[in-house]
Design brief:
The protein is built from 18 helices and 25 strands. The protein has about 625 residues and is an alpha/beta fold. The chain is globular and about 85 Å long. The structure holds 2-deoxy-2-amino glucitol-6-phosphate.
Length: about 625
Amino acid sequence: MCGIVAIVGSRQAAPLLIDGLRQLEYRGYDSAGLATLDSSSNCGKGVLTCKRASGKLVHLSKLVDSEGAPGHLGIGHTRWATHGKPEKRNAHPHRDVSGHVAVVQNGIIENHRSLRKDLESQGKKFVSDTDTEVIPHLIADELKLLQGEGRQPCGAMLKEAVQNVTAVLKGAYALAVIWVETPDALVVARKQAPLVIGLGEGEFLCASDTPALAGFTRTILPMEDGEVALLTPLGIELYNSQGERQKRSPSLLTGNSQVADKRHFRHFMLKEIHEQPETAELWVARHLPAGLPIESPVAMPFEESFYEGIESIQILACGTSRHAAMVGAYLLEQFAGIPTSVFYASEFRYAPPPLSPHTLTIGVTQSGETADTLAALDMEEKRRNAHGDLAFASRQLGITNRSDSSLARQVPNILDIGAGIEVGVAATKTFLGQLLAFYGLALTFASRRQNRCPTEIQDLLTELKAVPNHLRKLIQKHDQLSEALASRFAETQDVIFLGRGINYPIALEGALKLKEISYIHAEGYPAGEMKHGPIALLERRVPVISIAMPGVVFDKVLSNAQEAKAREAQLIGVAPEGPETEIFDELLPLPVVSEWISPLLALIPMQLLSYHIAAHRGLDIDQPRNLAKSVTVE
Ligand code: AGP
């Protein structure tokens, strides 16, 4: 996690670093820091200024405004704490003992303990608990060795020192390094953590993600794994892990990847919830245009060969994306008839199931940067391609909201959900976008395999086209209902969410949303499982939110809700109005729709209720404690 940014050019670096970091705060906001080099008055050497502050970027920004950080070259960091508490002493940049080398890093140095022990035994004093601090010490030692060979300090020397040090580092990381002896050069390196170079006018930048570059340039060069780059005001030099110079053409940044503003909404999350009708409308326009034949009812960006011979599907994802994957698996199995399994990417990468033939592996990640999902996909590709038998060969598809992400570079087939940038840490419109992507896939597979008759395909298409309007009405209605209900949760400590079948993942998502932003303990359960243990938790103070949509399990869910009511739990129904749903103490009503599309509507009260409960508690909804939008560490 963490975001890093580096710049060299003709303008003062500090304000530009702050601007860049602002676009990366979604990667962590436990602390922020920057270091600049000023060469104006030190006979060719730079004067290093380092400013760090715990908490959000705004604190660093104020510090820099009041104390200054001169220089045309600098590095910056916004932190999500992994090693060491979120305190100022653990904030980046970290420096060597002399204070001449400064480093910012994203990722984890897995062998930092043994490296630190060695360095301490040589008398080096450490001032933080971070894994990062070993790096400036090691680089400073390397530079001393190189200087000892009689060489003059230069950017190439700094690059060489970084190359030598990265050779001993284990783990996944991206880093940026500056050295007082080379005030016009900075070096960046990446291994399994993203880093993109930006080529501006008279300035060169590097950052963990493109939004940090978009305010400066649209010309970018994503770095490949293992590469090291030297950035000076004259240009960039790129080297692969063998130290060979690389020549690649830059590409152009497409779309608006800069963080949007909140408009009139109090929080980005609320704005993004309200943007969902548009997300659905765009999806319908892109994928369900008029005039498509019923045998191929969805416009998809894939070749014929992509679909051929698929016998099973496995989906790898984390968090909310995994919940979307679970709805997807339900659709792919129950509607399209393809055996489908869903895995936590973090579990799959260390305990994959035995290989199955003719299998499509789908990675779902809105950010396209989740370390576990990327690593699980990579591992799966390697083990399949090593197998030798073509039946087991790797076939992969990525579902993401970022067509410029690491996922998009790693996986050959991409479904871009096109939901627009999502700032709130709690995923909302990207969840809807992921669900819609699965409806598209399920419809495509069902019609190609003739698993559903044309009328069933047509019915689902018609219902999907009506989703944007449903969402528009629902959001308006539930915004008010949820706000009114939220005050009742002022003292609540535990909430249970129940769902079954296609809506079980929506219960999980409801619980995750509530936990993330309101810090209330919540659990999502398949309603039928309650009586096997969790029912012991129920009592008067524990609200039970039950999703009961007409369909195969409607009566079953209502009976499960009755069981909860008998234990005096407060019962809130997410269900259509009607005599059957009078059992609920409170109803968050949904229209009667087919069970297939019910998750697309049931998610709205989940999101809005969590939002209003958190807002009522006065919490930091867009940047909840301990979380980050993009989880780039294992
Ligand atoms: C969603 O509200 C969460 N913040 C989180 O669970 C998220 O879905 C998860 O980290 C996966 O992220 P990704 O979609 O970017 O891979």
